[in-house]
Write a structure and sequence with these properties.
Strand order of the largest sheet: 1-2-3-4-5
Number of domains: 2
Helix content: 25-40%
Mean pLDDT: 79
Distance between the termini: 43 Å
Number of strands: 13
Low-confidence stretches: 77-81, 95-101, 355-368
Structural class: alpha+beta
Radius of gyration: 24 Å
Strand content: 15-25%
Number of helices: 8
Order of helices and strands: HHHHHHHEHEEEEEEEEEEEE
């Protein structure tokens, strides 16, 4: 081996250590005590040095697999019964301090209880995506599980009411996604404030759940604090759900629709791993509306959830998500037993008004 080759390997190994050692330690510290976590990091990078030629161009998933195997070799079967309790306890200790805009402590506890109900592999995949920044596919690989070939295989046209645990898990991940979106807006301000996007966590604080529905493995939650509504589609099987949170500023729209009809505040597509897409739609339901059906351009009938004066529905995209979704037909069912087609997704969107928004330049970013 030439001196040049040895030098190149040394530089590459040093770069691996400087870039990823902290993240490997963070992963190990979730599963064992701090001293043992340091040993796991040392053993992981010893393997990396010995197998440097095998380390791929995207090294973090590979390093975490080595760390995971190292931890497995160090565990004794007598401790497996206590693994979940210890893992959740460490999560609570390393969780960042709550701020006024964060999820309340009791809500965080609900999320942790929901995580506890997952299988070992599902829980590991969720934590890898949320804490270590891996994509759902990478997280599934490290955790030893796989993403279903068809993400929407479990979807049903008629929803069930989501359980408290399912709702809490979806809301918890939604808060993470919203905070990341707000941080991006603050870090990269535009010359003029976009009235459709919140600029601080405080704007979205204090929301209550309006609709929480379950279709197969997916949970959809629509929440509002009176100023904004937020819609979020989540599945534990996909790690972080890989969807964006949809925000709507209510002051942009006229008052709620009259009795017996609905409006549409939000509609559009979201993507999930594997290249599949879903169509999400929601709006307000007038007095006496007890049910809503959406008939897609492909002829699929989707039963919407109706609660708290709002409705929501989502479905796997029948085709490319484009203007054709505006042609989906809206059918309402009323308290008196009558049923009518009241319009389409496109025709029922009220004209927004920008009179209540501030068109001043966005504040300068304070992010480093």
């Amino acid at each position: 081996m030439s001196a040049t080759t040895t030098s190149d390997e040394g530089r590459r190994f040093a770069s691996l250590w400087e870039t990823h050692a902290r993240r490997v330690y963070a992963y190990a510290a979730r599963h064992t005590d701090p001293d043992s976590a340091q040993d796991v990091v040392a053993e992981t990078f010893l393997v990396a040095w010995r197998r440097l030629a095998d380390v791929p161009g995207d090294p973090l998933p590979w390093l975490l697999v080595v760390a995971r195997n190292t931890l497995a070799n160090r565990r004794r079967s007598a401790y497996r019964h206590r693994l979940l309790e210890l893992e959740l306890g460490r999560l609570l200790r390393v969780a960042r301090p709550a701020t006024a805009a964060d999820v309340p402590v009791h809500a965080r506890d609900e999320v942790l209880r929901a995580v506890a109900q997952l299988t070992d592999a599902e829980r590991e995949a969720v934590l890898l995506a949320a804490w270590d920044g891996l994509s759902p596919q990478q997280a599934a690989h490290v955790a030893g599980c796989s993403v279903t070939p068809s993400a929407f295989a479990s979807w049903t046209p008629t929803p069930a009411v989501a359980t408290a645990a399912q709702t809490a898990a979806a809301q918890g991940q939604c808060e993470v996604v919203l905070h990341g979106s707000v941080e991006q807006t603050q870090r990269y301000p535009t010359p003029v404030v976009n009235p459709w996007l919140p600029t601080s966590d405080a704007e979205l604080a204090g929301r209550r759940v309006l609709v929480a529905e379950q279709r197969g493995t997916f949970t959809y939650v629509l929440s509002s604090n009176g100023a904004w509504t937020v819609g979020y589609l989540y599945s534990a099987a996909l790690g972080d759900g890989s969807t964006t949170a949809s925000t709507t500023r209510l002051s942009l729209f006229p008052p709620a629709p009259g009795a017996g009809t609905v409006d549409v505040l939000d509609r559009g597509g979201v993507g999930v791993p594997g290249g599949e897409s879903a169509v999400l739609a929601s709006g307000r339901a007038g007095r006496d509306v007890v049910g809503v059906d959406v008939v897609t351009p492909a002829g699929r009938t989707v039963t919407a959830s109706v609660a708290s004066g709002y409705w929501s529905a989502w479905w796997p995209a029948d085709e490319k998500v484009d203007d054709s979704l505006n042609q989906a037909r809206m059918i309402v069912h009323r308290k008196d037993g009558s049923t009518d087609e009241v319009g389409t997704l496109g025709s029922l969107v009220p004209k927004p008004s920008y009179a209540d928004t501030d068109p001043t330049p966005a504040p300068a970013s304070t992010a480093g």
